[in-house]
Description:
Elements: H1 2-22, H2 27-52, H3 55-77, H4 83-117
Helix pairs in contact: 1-2, 1-4, 2-3, 3-4
Amino acid sequence: xxxxxxxxxxxxxxxxxxxxxxxxxxxxxxxxxxxxxxxxxxxxxxxxxxxxxxxxxxxxxxxxxxxxxxxxxxxxxxxxxxxxxxxxxxxxxxxxxxxxxxxxxxxxxxxxxxxxxx
Length: 118
């Protein structure tokens, strides 16, 4: 659960201000979009893809997921996010996810080591 909260916080630091500045999203819409994306990225990227692949593959998948997610939400709400803005935000999210995955894997390995010692 701490991983999901950490992901939500980190994605929120990136996604909310970006959407609030570069689209017609209100702060509430930007926060809800960031929250929904964080949940989707956690379920798909962290619990499924990262479990079976390496960090780089999971981060690339997060970039693709972020782009598709932003495209869909932008279309639904009528935001004028350009393709370049969606690619830029997706790449920034992917970069952040790469480091987040490193922390998650380190925490999981440390916790597994602690359990095996007891």
